[in-house]
Design brief:
Strand content: 15-25%
Shape: elongated
Number of strands: 18
Structural class: alpha/beta
Largest sheet: 9 strands, mixed
Radius of gyration: 25 Å
Length: 442
């Protein structure tokens, strides 16, 4: 790699991919392009012709067509490989995974068969993943009506005068977030599966696309959310342009509210973050896991656990031993740590809060600000003053484990209002009855 500092190390804090500036890899990366296809021979031919015209060195480029069981043989030029799965309905997630398994490149680039890239697309989209293995890049998908245009026509000529409207919601999101530099827990919505790239190392760590997605849409967002939670950086690369043959999803036949609702409802279970999941329905993966270590009185344990769950009903609390209090044993959100587990036990929450003494939480605002800070930016760990424990994001944990270093996120110390150390013998009747001063508890 050229340059020094973060470029030489391949590590930058938080989502700061901008710190590498305009640096480029000293050697072009080995790129595998996975082209997902189903029964679109003309569109596929156009996309493969566009890939043959890339300015990325041909000997560093592998092209694999991943076919989702097309009814006719797939015709490809020499040097392009085809892998195929049986037609069992819409299985885009599965066929992308199939393509990855057949590939050998260090950088994975995903395209759809009806999305033809401009000549500089591969070089532009793979630059950041080659420099920063934790980067997930998303290109600019533009739209054109290419009906009747010969498939070998160069992309720039083919789209001239045939441009269709770009999705305004997507352009606005990229502008507001400075091309996803200001990404957060909900920025997965701006990662479009037809135009993304990442390192194989990150893809393997995150895991492939969720093959339980068997209807149009959502599998790319679920994967992007998982990648973000695993410590990935998100970046939009506007210079990486690929042209989709036809309008955006909202402008296609059948793109009605029922279809949109189906995607949103599917993601509500898979993406359990505020603004994506429901408000009252319990989430399969909690947003917050509180690990209370050590032994404590029944009274302080009850008040601590109850106040946390009252303030954050989607949290879980992990204890070191089975509680004696029946009210705690009967709540499914209260779990017991297995002796072989660490931290928050087996709970893969977005944030883990480790406490070595019981706390009373009587106001959600301060802790909610901490949770928001851990969902974006450079903060990975927050130490709460007054022995209030340590909050740690899953992103920081996963990135540190993958890169074997803690430098990817910063640690801060904060005074958090609404968190009070409990006395060993809090007045439980006063707590549940709602009377008595704070002195009865802390």
């Amino acid at each position: 790699m050229t340059g020094g500092g973060p470029v030489a190390s391949g590590i930058v804090p938080g989502n700061r991919w901008d710190l590498v500036g305009d640096a480029r890899p000293a050697t072009p990366p080995r790129v595998s392009v996975i082209v997902a296809h189903y029964d679109q021979p003309d569109e596929l031919a156009r996309t493969l012709a566009a890939l043959a015209a890339q300015d990325h060195p041909a000997d560093r480029l592998e092209i694999i067509v991943a076919d989702d069981g097309s009814p006719h043989p797939v015709s490809v030029p020499a040097g392009v490989r085809v892998v195929r799965q049986e037609d069992r309905g819409f299985r885009l997630a599965a066929v992308r995974n199939l393509g990855v398994r057949a590939s050998t490149g260090d950088i994975l680039c995903f395209l759809d068969a009806d999305t033809a890239p401009e000549p500089g697309y591969i070089s532009a989209l793979t630059r950041l993943p080659a420099l920063l293995p934790d980067a997930v890049t998303v290109g600019r998908r533009r739209h054109a009506d290419l009906a009747g245009v010969p498939v070998q026509t160069p992309v720039a000529e083919a789209v001239r005068g045939r441009e269709l409207a770009e999705p305004a919601w997507l352009a606005d999101a990229y502008a507001r977030s400075r091309n996803l530099l200001d990404a957060d827990d909900r920025s997965y919505r701006y990662v479009i599966g037809a135009v993304i790239a990442c390192s194989r190392r990150l893809f393997d760590d995150v895991g492939g696309f969720d093959e339980s997605f068997t209807a149009y849409g959502g599998e790319d967002w679920e994967w992007a959310h998982r990648a973000w939670q695993a410590g990935a950086m998100l970046a939009h690369v506007p210079d990486a342009v690929a042209w989709h043959d036809g309008p955006e999803w909202a402008g296609r036949e059948g793109s009605d509210r029922e279809r949109a609702n189906a995607q949103t409802l599917r993601l509500a279970a898979s993406v359990p973050v505020s603004g994506s999941a429901g408000f009252g329905v319990r989430r399969s993966v909690p947003d917050l896991a509180v690990h209370l270590t050590g032994e404590h009185s029944d009274a302080s344990l009850f008040v601590c656990v109850d106040s946390i769950l009252a303030t954050f009903p989607h949290a879980v609390v992990v204890l070191d031993a089975e509680p004696a209090v029946e009210a705690l044993r009967s709540d499914a959100r209260v779990r017991v740590r297995d002796g072989g587990e660490s931290g928050g036990g087996a709970v893969d929450a977005r944030v883990t809060w480790t406490l070595d003494r019981p706390m009373l939480v009587d106001d959600a605002a301060g802790l909610a600000e901490c949770l928001a800070a851990l969902g974006s930016g450079e903060v990975g760990t927050i130490e709460v003053e007054s022995s209030g424990g340590v909050l740690r994001s899953r992103r920081a944990e996963r990135r540190a484990a993958r890169l074997c270093t803690e430098v990817g996120f910063t640690s801060v110390r904060r005074r958090v209002p609404g968190i009070h150390p409990l006395r060993p013998d809090p007045h439980v009747e006063a707590y549940v009855g709602g009377w008595g001063s704070l002195d009865a508890f802390v």
